[in-house]
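In this section we turn from sequence analysis to structure. A common task in structural bioinformatics is to predict how a protein folds when a small molecule is present, because the ligand can shape the pocket around it. The inputs are simple: the amino acid sequence and a SMILES string for the ligand, here S-adenosylmethionine. Study the lines below before reading on.
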Amino acid sequence: MTDDRERWNEKYSADDEFGLPDDPIPELARRVDTLPAGRALDVATGTGRNARFLAAEGYDVDAVDVSDEALDRARRAADGVDVNWIRSDIEAFEFDADAYDVITVSFFAMLDRLPDLVEALKPGGVLVYEHHLRSSDDIDIGPSSDRYRYPSNHLLHACLDLTILHYAERTRPDAEGRTQAVATLVARNSTGGAQSYPRIEE
Ligand SMILES: C[S@@+](CC[C@H](N)C(=O)[O-])C[C@H]1O[C@@H](n2cnc3c(N)ncnc32)[C@H](O)[C@@H]1O
């Protein structure tokens, strides 16, 4: 058993209150109509909120997590929505090349494997990535140590070989009104000085 598997299984079993939100990350919901249809991968899916949402939107979804307990919860929450749940440590996960139209990563740091994520995207495929951000504001939720939060612009800089469709850093209330600081990126596997962009209603 890897350290991550054991640690996260304990976290999910010991703490019924380790409640991850049920709704997908807001930027994914806001943009889903503009994303290419087809196959999606949700990395470190947890209880599967992004994966379930994408499957309900018609995607053929692979969802990976190291924790058996998380995937048990995800399966129970799926309630008829079909997702290919994969129990794997992401360190050992073999990404298929040119496989996915959409890849989502939320609240899991994996920029060290960004080249694998990019390779796994089809041409024109879109990466939606959200993570905890360092902030001098009063923050209610997320890691207590800045070590586990991205500094300003870190996520943006890492993804500059992709076409950045959206990048924002902000504090916002979660579903229970607690303040969180997040960096959100939407980036496409495309190149060219004059490209086509989806129209997003503000
Ligand atoms: C903070 S939760 C986020 C879950 C989900 N993405 C969300 O936003 O609701 C982080 C998740 O990463 C998973 N995880 C941690 N280390 C992992 C690894 N090495 N490989 C795959 N998943 C991992 C944990 O089991 C946990 O479900």
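The mean pLDDT is 95. As an exercise, try to locate the residues that line the S-adenosylmethionine site and compare them with your own expectations.
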